């Protein structure tokens, strides 16, 4: 990579270290990176071949998970190294059993990139959706390692398509093949000379369908919502979302129930959420411990990992993040045949636009528009059923990305590794 890129990477790394003194996430990233190479040294098996899969955070991990599990099922002798950039992904999935090694991605300096690639020596590398680390890509190319980008989506404003984006365009050319979500992305890449591109779709649809088929029943939640004429679930909720929907809930009929699954929480956040709904709230932990809801009409989810199963107990889902960096996973709710409601910052997500167009999704920009949407969905059962049907049909129409990527790239790669003894295949 050029000097400016390397300076920027080093400055960013120094910024993380400086921020670690006062920021918990930065501290986790700093400390986690220090453990990357010791973890690899102790866990890599001599003679075994590994596929390296990188996900920026938890959402990208769920996007890549169908392919990870396909590799594990179809080629169990192949090792899997899974890296994360963000603590939000690593801390939740550091014990994920579908990978042999889970660790943080090291800083993308020339030295660290060389050390990582020469330590893992992956037979292939798979990047999920985005994250373009120039030195790592250069090292993979130098080692003639096949590199794939999956479930990618590109827009005209991205730096690759700007006059000053030459460094990043060169990164794209390090990929052996790019699997994109839509034809617009394919056309954009073709315009800058990237020809090894296939429209495969988004593996997230395969993942949420897998979740639907293995959903966990929660009898306590089922009893909580049983008296409800309408249950709204707020998935991956942020304070900016709560400023809008809590007001609607407080004015809704007494038979209405609300489930809040905050995107991030600690004791202070849970305490603040308890005070917002009129009549109070109960947490899932309390409910599971046998406490009765009393007058509480609101359930607060105070643990991670259960949101995808909770959607089955709601009539409509409001997905958070639309007043921040961007909405969270709306497919997890839509797969249950629920209408999905979200804020205005959804332009990065093709599925949001598609769901609005097909009638399964609704965007709100303020309290007035949200009240109008929720009033209609909570009282007009025909409208709600039609929207839910449209959302479920849309998800089903998008299935198959994992198969396309597997058949085009991963299966041929693994099948070419014909020697069944991994020690003999090590080079």
TrEMBL record:
The keyword tRNA processing does not apply. Keywords: Cell membrane, Lipopolysaccharide biosynthesis, Membrane, Transferase. Pathway: Bacterial outer membrane biogenesis; LPS core biosynthesis. The keyword Transmembrane does not apply. The active site is at 60 (proton acceptor). InterPro entries: Glycos_transf_N, Glycos_transf_N_sf, Kdotransferase. GO terms for molecular function: Kdo transferase activity. It catalyses: lipid IVA (E. coli) + CMP-3-deoxy-beta-D-manno-octulosonate = alpha-Kdo-(2->6)-lipid IVA (E. coli) + CMP + H(+). One of its GO terms (biological process) is lipid A biosynthetic process. Its EC number is 2.4.99.12. It holds the Pfam family Glycos_transf_N. Residues 40-206 form the 3-deoxy-D-manno-octulosonic-acid transferase N-terminal domain. It is found in: Cell membrane. One of its GO terms (cellular component) is plasma membrane. Involved in lipopolysaccharide (LPS) biosynthesis. Catalyzes the transfer of 3-deoxy-D-manno-octulosonate (Kdo) residue(s) from CMP-Kdo to lipid IV(A), the tetraacyldisaccharide-1,4'-bisphosphate precursor of lipid A. This is 3-deoxy-D-manno-octulosonic acid transferase. It comes from Paramuribaculum intestinale. The lineage of its organism: Bacteria, Pseudomonadati, Bacteroidota, Bacteroidia, Bacteroidales.
